[in-house]
Amino acid sequence: MAALLQDKVERFFGRFSPMPQYSRLGFKLLDSDPVLDVSRKLGFKVVEYDLPPYPLYKAGVGSIQMLSFIFGSGIVAYFLYHNVAKKSAAGKWFSILFLITALMTWPLLDPMSGVMLIDFWKPALGFRSSLLVWDIFQIRSVPEVESWGFARFFAQLWTFPKELDEIEERTREEGYARNPRIENIKGMPKVAVEAVALLVTLYFIPPYELTKDMSQLAYHCYCDALGLSILMALALFGDGLLKALGILINVEMADMFENPLGTTNIRLFWSHWNRAIATVLHRVVFGGGKSKTRLKKAKAAAAAEAEQKRRHLDQLSETDAGHTSGEDEDKNGRRSRTSSGLRPLSQLNGDAKLVHRKPNGSGPQKETETTASAKKDAAKSKGSFLPKAVAAIVTFAMSGIFHEHITYFTLGFANGENFLFFLANGVATVTATWFKRTFPEANARIPTLVSVLMLHVFFLAVIPLFCSPFIRSGFFIQLEALKYELLPIRARPRGSFVYLFGK
User: Fold this and answer.
1) The domain containing residue 345 runs over which residues?
2) Where is region (Disordered) located (predicted)?
């Protein structure tokens, strides 16, 4: 009790002493940075440099202005949908064009503040929400949108909520409805881990001046570290703010990322990376994407239809697969294996090679209609790859344009590097998918470890196209200053860099 009282007294009087004893957040100040101390002991070279203090006041004012625009535009969009867009086609197109124009010109109307984190979110959110305007007003059905209250409408326009049909499917499976606020709170420990990971990765982001004397391989590796830092920053500020807002408006939010670093190929990586933008791009480019639940139902319905068609064709064939396969039906209509132990012909090679047998059972005689149909379907599936590939390239190209839009209004320039990065990833994704479809057996023989290494070697090669603009502009160096506003360290510069590969 006495120690606690003494600590409170020291904290109180420490506020009036010439040298502060506690940070702005109330933590007792450390004499040195423990991460840098450990790095030095391990033999790594450490560079410390001073930076201007983080513009906290500007960040606070900018955040209030940004939130005001977000909530105000949400109210305007809700009014336009229910009072203008539904009444006529002209009203709908007026609403769409007005809202998209307002969202895309938002960074122009509210110029750069100098707080790059705030300046980043304005074009990023504006571009994404302009796509969501098209999704809400043009792609989704009127009954679906009319079923939303304002909170859900606002969430669909500005956040990344879990789709209602997914929630309904989960409720049916579990037998009870989960509380949206509690589900959002459950995600907060993950957000805390992402915050710590972001602070750690910032130690390995080099200032632009220090990159000039680096080897090309070292620079690529530091860019890879910056990619990890970007992942943590997006996850922290994206998931953290989204779930906090979800708690406020009582709407369950989906996760922006699904462990992209745990994937084994490039297609899976991008389907798990930043799902908040990937899903809306997919809906717009592919003419209206479906949620996971709808896709699952559609696949189940297609499988049932294919099974019904197969059975119908089997009954039309000269040999009934059900009674020549070594199985008989009992009095309850169930099939049982006969003493011959043969598997049903309908199961051979996934139903794709169902064949007639010669009367003496010596071998295949000719293909049935099922085989012909399967080959026709396979040919049709392969033939449809080209338009899907083009659509995938267009999706990646739009993502590249999206990021060029962000860099222009955040960093003050856009030189096409981000566009080339996403275009290269689009080509790589289509190529990998083509190889898997064309040579499935060879693809299946690639060991998982080799697949992961190939993925990360590719990223290591192209990652500077994505990261170089952020390094040249000092985006994450400014976050360094914010980091040292938060860390309780007494005397320290506001920037530090740990060489991982030597100077």
Assistant:
1) 303-381
2) 297-377
